[in-house]
Amino acid sequence: MTSHSDSQRHEFTVNSSELLVDAPILAVRRDSVTMPGGTSADREIVEHFGAVAVVAVDEHERIALVEQYRHSVGRRLWELPAGLLDFAGEDELVTAQRELVEEAGLEAQNWSLLLDLVTSPGFAEESVRVFLATGLREVERPAAEDEEADMRFTWLHIEEARQAVMTGRIVNSIAIAGILAASEVIAGRSEARSVDSPFDLRPTHMAQRRQQQGIAPDMKKIGQQ
């Protein structure tokens, strides 16, 4: 899927960088980037820790979904169990296993990789690793706080979930990608990958800066170290 040789491609060099906002779960920086022809242009980038999500499928081909209030859109959205990669050095699979317990009260015997996606590449670093989890069993869900205390849980058959995507009942982009990818695997048209596949898209800028500042293991806790 390339149209030019490497020797013909422009290198977008960063000439300078300025941190504009530094908040617990995101930051904003401005990079001055060399454009083709030698000019420079500013690009504002939302820094992010990255995240994981889980398509947990039971023996009846039902998917575990959670409904959570999202203040950015002012409504509750049906989503996959998911969470930030906000603990320094933590493996993506470990994060996914913890989030599945915390949000859905489930553990899984079998794990594989469905896909990696970049949610908003025009301005944000956020990338998400979406896992497929099977061989499920129910476990106790720990007490939740903030929006998660209002979270609802449901099972939805994979075909009904696909229809919910196509009719607009499910609009979260990560859930859409995960549901459609899982349906391909369940139907036998595609295969999931190994969880050991490199996550080259995992963001590093904010995580590295926070760790250099001694903000670890929980990198959200700025001003509390």
From TrEMBL:
PROSITE patterns, sorted: NUDIX
Keyword terms, alphabetized: Hydrolase
Gene3D superfamilies recorded: Nucleoside Triphosphate Pyrophosphohydrolase
UniProt GO MF annotations: hydrolase activity
Gene Ontology cellular component list: cytosol
Region (Disordered): 195-225
One of the protein's GO biological processes: nucleoside phosphate metabolic process
PANTHER family reported for this sequence: ADP-RIBOSE PYROPHOSPHATASE, UDP/ADP-SUGAR PYROPHOSPHATASE
Name of this protein: NUDIX hydrolase
